[in-house]
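Protein modeling request. Please complete all fields; requests missing the sequence field cannot be processed.
Requester role: graduate student
Desired output: 3D structure, token encoding
Chains: 1
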Amino acid sequence: MNSPDLKEPAFSDVLDARDRISPWLSPTALRSYPRLSNLSGIDLLVKQENHQPIGAFKVRGGVNLLSCLDEEDRERGVISASTGNHGQSIAWAAKLFGVRAIIAVPEGANPSKVDSMLALGAEVVFHGRDFDEAREEVERRSAAEGLRYIHSANEPLLIAGVATCTLEIIEEAPDLDALIVPIGGGSGAAGAGLVLENLSPQTRLIGVQAEEAPAACLSWRRGKLVEAPMTTKAEGLATRCAFELTQRMLRKHLDEFVLVSEEEMNNAVRLLLGKTSSLAEPSGAASLAAALKLADRLSGKKTAVVLSGANIAPEQLRSILRST
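Delivered output (324 residues):
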């Protein structure tokens, strides 16, 4: 099957995903940092997805999806497009289950993420100026070569897998007032909404995206899929397009969508390192940037932010730290 099934996952799929991934992935910590809470005035909790084996939450989805492939798809191999973390997720799971994986990345992709995919045994192909051009090449190759195409967002098994992150959060903090999740393609926030609907409907779900890549936010606000210019350096959020399945779920579950600037994300990277000793890439720090932007409204409220990834290139980190 080369085209993704656009049926929305159910909450039972999230519970099944937890059972599938538990032999391979341990729950990550949900931590409180008094210095960060005192600075923001928010009762902040940080979900440490930067401690996953690939340094990002996406691995949950990769393991769930690859574990469900039928024998024919395993033999043919899989192909996907990524700016880095999704690709690492597929590569890590493909190595785990002995499946050939081809990952197309844009020219100039984060070298640390590319090195990780290569080390995991994936075939990495550079194509296009951004994620969406790489994705279009993957769609062409998938059809031409009979490979199982793994879309980065329109995949119910990916969404159910990454939703286990929110499942862990709510089981540990059932009285949560707000949850803030970064949105690129939207799988993390879509999965979060599914969990909150079933376990914690009183928790406000807030999505955050880069001002310089607002396609998902604009699509959510307008109620239809739109494209938008993409110039952000936060590659985890760097999409020009929104996607049907995740947008459909976001329209049901998302309470608010916030856009943050490059400097707001960079400042959050610095704060996470300085106040919590946590390494974050800009997209991984976006949820903290949004919390700080909404500090007046979230004051005193128990709020969890998902530190979704830590795969920052050394030169990018040096640049961010020098800009203080």
